[in-house]
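USER: Study each token:
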Amino acid sequence: MAKVKLTKNELKLQRDALKRFERYLPTLQLKKQQLQLEVRQAREKLAELEEQDRQDVLEHSADLALFASMPDYGLEAEKVTQWRVATRNIAGTEVPVHGGLEWERQEMDIFETPLWIDDALEMVERKAEFRLKRQLMAELVACLEDELRTVTQRVNLFEKVKIPDAQENIRRINIYIGDQQTNSVGRSKIAKAKCQERDADAL
């Protein structure tokens, strides 16, 4: 605990600080609760995306095996031209969110490519979108968890350090000022008694 001056000015400063801490603490606690809820929801969403991806692989495992055994047939003709990432404000924290993908598909000779090529390209698009969504959701979870750690540290700082320190400083200063006032009253009584004795002796 930092050393404080035992004065009335310091008492006012400590009281003002205590009021400020007590005013900010509920806001921080509310933000902490909001972040806890958002982190839980984001983790659930990430788990859903991973489960959807897993189910998609299971449903199309035969197709994937077929595609893997075939020559390339121009699958490289499919490419992402733009990956849009937006931002969203969650409890005062800017986090990334998926804004969509734009694809470019080159023209292919329908006589030289197999019939399943369109299905393969659609699967490539779907898998890429799943992976990018999952990546962004993992980043969102990491951002929210980091912010939650920071807010939790601030809440703990206010609850366990700042507010108790200010209360203790106010208590100490009040005791000191009370003792000084008691001593002052005692000294004034002694001085008054001495003056009365001196006046009595003078008579």
Summary: The beta strands are 78-90, 93-105.
